[in-house]
């Protein structure tokens, strides 16, 4: 295996690689959503869908042997021809399309860089538990099993023009429709002139991590560990990523809600009344509609059948006292900052961590159902604004964990990357 050069410090590097792809008849049945969007119920559904579903690699189980199991499964699938590496290194044009959805970008080997260099910008904090989990999996499998999602302001430049031209004029390498109604297509770019044009375009740009903060932190941790162990430059200096020009394909930014098991709704509301204006509703949908038009920080609390409460107008003195003094005014104004620094710890005596608070992406009604089942409280959070996230990241700050859900997210299982074939 040739030793790759370290990524450039002059800007974004997206390098061609030999994609590893499933060679099965029903490609849709072996794909999945990203690992952190898959519930336990979803795992079984995916396992039942196909014996080679990628969930066997990205969520291999719960016992102490799960990472070795993923390693063995990956080797077995590569040995049997279930997974096959492409012959030529390529950048892959990737398209998602469906009702109200059109996204195009490039999948490749992202050159890793420390966030302090300002090339790849995180905007969200990470927790050590998920990083440790993904690190053990990456070490065991020696590869990247699903791409992270990056945005850059390409202003419709050469790379975006090439992506659109390829998607509009060439037959795809892969075309599959998944059960969510989205069609996914891939094209391989292998011509040196096209690859050089992309490289030249990206030089000098920076990118925002839209989705995959824990995986990017894992990329950096693995790189550090391997260098410390004396491995030197190698494929661990890069990570699998989808890069999208946000000016051509603006992202969809959705909210991530919280569920607090064991905190009865009426107790949560009673405690909130000392610091918030509380508006009572007998219909959840009416409360959600009121939340969408509320000015300033606001949340919906729900859990019991048909009962919900809109929180607005928090006491500014209490909020300011709860906020870290070092944070910017923009950061302090975020709904998720107020949630994590004031509502959860000061009003309810809780921390926004994995043990106390459960996460529900996008679906407010699902969060309400979960709260009802756990005799708890659903906290419906309004989505942040893209411009706030970008400004905070550019200023070197990070929003609280699980503040954003950018989409549409790349489908897992369409293309993988292994160090042995890189």
Automatic annotation (TrEMBL):
It comes from the Bacteria. PANTHER family: DUF1015 DOMAIN-CONTAINING PROTEIN (PTHR36454:SF1), LMO2823 PROTEIN (PTHR36454). It comes from Sphaerisporangium corydalis. Pfam families: DUF1015. InterPro entries: UCP033563. This is DUF1015 domain-containing protein.
């Amino acid at each position: 295996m040739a030793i790759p050069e370290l990524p450039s410090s002059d800007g974004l590097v997206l390098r061609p690689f030999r994609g590893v792809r499933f060679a099965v008849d029903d490609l849709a049945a072996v794909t999945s959503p990203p690992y952190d969007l898959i519930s336990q119920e979803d795992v079984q559904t995916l396992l039942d869908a196909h014996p080679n579903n990628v969930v066997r690699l990205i969520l291999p189980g719960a016992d102490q042997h799960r990472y070795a199991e993923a390693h063995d499964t990956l080797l077995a699938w590569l040995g049997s021809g279930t997974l096959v590496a492409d012959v030529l290194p390529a950048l892959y044009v990737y398209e998602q399309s469906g009702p109200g959805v059109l996204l195009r970008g490039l999948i490749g080997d992202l050159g890793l860089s420390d966030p302090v260099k300002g090339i790849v910008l995180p905007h969200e904090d990470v927790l050590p538990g998920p990083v440790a989990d993904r690190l053990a999996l990456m070490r065991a499998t020696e590869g990247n099993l699903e791409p992270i999602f990056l945005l850059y302001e390409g202003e419709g430049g050469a790379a975006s023009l090439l992506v659109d031209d390829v998607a509009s004029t060439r037959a795809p390498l892969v075309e599959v429709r998944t059960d969510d109604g989205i069609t996914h297509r891939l094209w391989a770019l292998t011509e040196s002139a096209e690859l050089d044009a992309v490289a030249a375009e990206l030089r000098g740009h920076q990118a925002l991590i839209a989705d995959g903060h824990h995986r990017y932190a894992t990329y950096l941790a693995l790189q550090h560990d391997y260098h410390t162990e004396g491995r030197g430059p190698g494929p661990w200096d890069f990570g699998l990523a989808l890069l999208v020009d946000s000016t051509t394909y603006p992202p969809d930014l959705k909210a991530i809600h919280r569920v607090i098991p064991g905190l009865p709704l009426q107790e949560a509301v009673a405690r909130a009344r000392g610091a918030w204006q509380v508006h009572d509703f007998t219909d959840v949908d009416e409360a959600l509609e009121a939340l969408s038009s509320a000015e300033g920080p606001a949340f919906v609390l729900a859990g019991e059948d048909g009962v919900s409460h809109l929180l607005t107008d928090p006491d500014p003195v209490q909020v300011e006292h709860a906020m870290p003094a070092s944070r910017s005014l923009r950061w302090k104004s975020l709904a998720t900052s107020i949630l994590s620094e004031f509502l959860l710890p000061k009003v309810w005596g809780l921390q926004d961590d994995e043990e106390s608070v459960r996460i529900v992406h996008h679906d407010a009604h699902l969060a309400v159902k979960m709260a009802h089942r756990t005799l708890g409280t659903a906290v419906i959070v309004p989505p942040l604004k893209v411009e706030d996230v970008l400004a905070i990241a550019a200023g070197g700050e990070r929003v609280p964990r699980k503040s954003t859900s950018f989409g549409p997210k790349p489908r897992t299982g369409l293309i993988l990357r292994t160090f042995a074939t890189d």
